[in-house]
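Standup notes, protein team

Yesterday: finished cleaning the Lutibacter profundi set.
Today: Glycosyltransferase 2-like domain-containing protein structure.
Blockers: none.

Input for Glycosyltransferase 2-like domain-containing protein:
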Amino acid sequence: MTPVTIGLPFYNAEKYLADAIRSVFAQTHQYWELILIDDGSTDGSLEIAKSVQDTRVRVYSDGENKKLATRLNEIVQLAKFDIIARMDADDLMSPTRIEKQLKILEQYPEIDLVTTGLFSVTNDLKLIGVRWHYNTTISFDEVLNKKGCGVVHAAIIGRKSWFTRNPYDTTLKIAQDYELWLRASSKNDFNIYLLQEPLYYYREENNATSEKLLIAYKNERQMYRKYGKRDKNKLVFKSHLKSFIIKILKRINQLELLLKRRNSLINNEDYYDKVRFEIECIKSTKIE
């Protein structure tokens, strides 16, 4: 059985952290270590992390707020195993996520990374929608132009060797993943498989704030200028237009329209059954 390092950075996540940890303990693949890395939390998150007694769990805290990119790079350095998965502290994983992603990595040794589709949920885990990429592969142009759902960053699992040669840019406070995908893809080092099955529960309610989006679009324009070729000016213009639309939506208090646009509506009752079953499974899992 292939061992996996699961990295979970957290910052002031006391409301959701225990459930995120439960979703790790609920995995059908049980040969893992969990690295919980604090980013200078001022709430009770660190105490929750330290309360876990399982020897597979390691907790790190230096009291500093270094931001996500730095913490993700530190997880790579700390990882004992050659396969690394990540997740966010306010989300949940499907119990079969690690098992199914590992199967792809084991079946295709040329693949370095595997991501999945996702269920978008409210803070109390009510289903909003679902999204996945329309293909199992993605090209540089598709990454650049943000075609389809794209790469779900929080659901990434990959080989430690890939993360070692492709570290996150710690100068970026947001959209570090987008820059990483473009940088790796531009040098033909982005061998990724996009599992279309939704195996990740992403809390999006109140997450897409206008401030975050405007910063992300500003960083996006930097990426277009750096990596864009013949369509550079067109992409920059579209990004400015998106920023303008965000400002309008904020002014009329309609940012939730953007969230609805991101996700596909669910008309498959099997999805509701799956979500109910998996969330019940996670909630009933004991953390030792």
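Follow-up from PR in the comments: The CA atoms of residues 135 and 194 lie 7 Å apart.
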